[in-house]
Amino acid sequence: MLNLVLFGPPGAGKGTQSQKLIEKHGLIHLSTGDLLRGEISQGTELGLEAKKLMDEGTLVPDEVVIGMISNKLDANKDAKGFIFDGFPRTVAQAEALDGLLDSKGESISRMVALEVGDDELENRLLLRGKDSGRPDDANPEVIRKRIKEYNDKTAPVAGFYKKQDKFKSINGIGSIEQIFGAIDKIIKTY
Ligand code: ADP
Q1: How confident is the model at residue 168, as a pLDDT?
Q2: Alpha carbon 104 to its chain's center
Q3: C-alpha distances in angstroms, 125 versus 86, 98, 142?
Q4: Beta carbons of 157 and 88 less than 8 angstroms apart
Q5: Exposure winner among 45, 80, 152, 182, fewest CB in 10 A?
Q6: Tell me: the pLDDT tens digits for 64-84?
Q7: 41/99 Cα distance (integer angstroms)
Q8: Alpha-carbon distance 45 to 51, whole Å?
Q9: Which residues line ligand 1 (CB under 6 A)?
Q10: Cα-flanking dihedrals φ and ψ of residue 17, to 5°?
Q11: Euclidean distance between CA atoms 142 and 157, whole angstroms
Q12: How far is 149 from 144, CA to CA, in rounded Å?
């Protein structure tokens, strides 16, 4: 299996690049943000709980997202591989993911990090908020909170994969095709 963690702050372009990777490599896309928004639109209890936290830019509890990922791994046993987008977002989530994959005789192949500075992120998210309809993209205060959550809780996840010699970082500023080319080069070396 080719199991990629696509890493980077909110607005780095993970979703855009995931779509292109799915098309080219036939991987299954697992975005915890999308899964949570799915729960919200279905009006589930989990969705109701998550919505409060997401709207203020706070991470939802580890066990909630780990449970969702575990279900998706079980439901896609014959996949060629997975792209993890927006997960793992804490070191505890990364440890849990290693455990889930290990129990299936699988592991993470690579983490690819998209590097984008804070000012550019804020601009991109505000722009996206104009038509995405995502409440967490519309408000500068919430955007800054999400970037702070990223720096405090998520950035350390890079160290987790560096220790396993799986971490690669690329410039997240440039055309969509340029960035995709850089990711694809990393995949080819795997
Ligand atoms: P982005 O990366 O663009 O901010 P996402 O769609 O990945 O957006 O996530 C939106 C929100 O969903 C996050 O701010 C957080 O509240 C919640 N969320 C998504 N994935 C996770 C996760 N792995 N752990 C905790 N919270 C998460």
Answers
A1: 97
A2: 21
A3: 15, 31, 10
A4: yes
A5: 45
A6: 999 999 999 999 999 999 999
A7: 30
A8: 10
A9: 10-11, 32-33, 36, 53-54, 57-60, 65, 86-87, 89, 93, 136, 146
A10: -70, -35
A11: 22
A12: 9
Length of the chain: 190
Which residue bears the tokens 């408000």? 139
Pocket test for ligand 1, best of 16, 39, 54, 134 (most atoms within 8 A of CB): 54
CA–CA dist 82, 177 (Å, integer): 21
Return the CATH class of domain 2-116+155-188. Answer: alpha beta
Q: Does residue 175 surpass a pLDDT of 90? A: yes
Cα 38 to ligand 1 centre (Å)? 13
Query: Starting at the edge strand that comes first in sequence, how are the strands of the sheet with 81-85 ordered?
Result: 28-31, 81-85, 2-7, 110-115, 167-171
Hey, where are the domains in the chain?
2-116+155-188
Distance, in Å, from the CA atom of 19 to the CA atom of 14, rounded to the nearest integer, reads 9
Cα 164 to Cα 145: distance, rounded to the nearest angstrom: 30
Under 8 Å between Cβ of 6 and 85: yes
Give the whole-number percent of the chain exceeding pLDDT 70.
100
Place of tokens 């936290």: 53
- In this predicted structure, the answer to whether residue 22 has a pLDDT above a threshold of 80 is yes
**Mean pLDDT for the stretch of residues 87-113:** 98
Do residues 86 and 14 lie in contact, with contact meaning Cβ atoms separated by under 8 Å?
Answer: yes
